[in-house]
Amino acid sequence: MEKNNFSTDFSIKTDFFKGGSFTVNLSPLEISNKVFIPGHRFIPFLNPAVRPWNVKITDQNGKNISRKTVSANPEILKPFYSLYGEENFLFLLIDDRHENSGIILNGAGNTYKLSATVYDLSLILPESGTQRPAIQKTALVFKIDDWEKGIYKVSTHIPDTKNMDTAEWVDTLENGFKTVFEKNKKLQMVADVMSDAFLYGGKALLENPVLSLEEFFDISEISDIADMISVQKEDPEITEQKRFVKEKTINLIKTLTSWLENSSFDEQVILEKQVLVTKRTLIAVLEELNNPFISEEMIKTMLQVISESSQLVSKIR
What is the value of pTM for the model shown? Predict the structure, then answer.
């Protein structure tokens, strides 16, 4: 069976996606606030190592689209990150805006608000009023200048479905996904599965992007795609390593917490600061385990933290 090298060869993907285009439908929330929430919208049109809120977007005249920060209830923001897997949603917001970490830890239910980096569309979206009906149909069309670095040119687009061969586009992309599933038995990251599907489908998918990916998944008949998107899948070896790290980390945190609660005053004077710092580091390890971009190198770093923390635990026992 032919081996697929798409997922590991960045040069192939950089060349394939360069100059291509994709469509993003703006939500009513984005239209009313004239912002673009990047979230999962750039999957698979962006190197997975680049965070979506760090991409560079220019208008048709080459002027940079500026970023700004908005605050909203988590349930409002969640749909914009769903393709990363629901379990990764809060981590992504923490990775985007570090202050979200403290808000989440101290929040009560869904009453708190989290911050997110968005792109300001006030200069490229028309004013409301007489043009309001047209705005409601507006989509953004992104031209990919550099897939690896995350550089795009954006324009507004009013879809005209009369001249679109939607069925052919959907069929071509579905066949791309089918080929991925046939050729790759090993689990892959969602971004890799989706970018490979475009590669197998061919450049025509990027030359005439009649649908956004969200629209495609709404009408696609391939249930495997929905399963792949709804559940973040990864290499089973990394999954096992994460399970081991989580178990060890939780046990160490419990031991350190018990020591802080039961140690004598003299013991605390000597070791309390070191114990508190170690405990905070271990909590950070637990948070990082939810990182959808986690790598083997990051796992090795976590194991080193566990080893060093275990030495402290041995000392206080």
Answer: 0.69
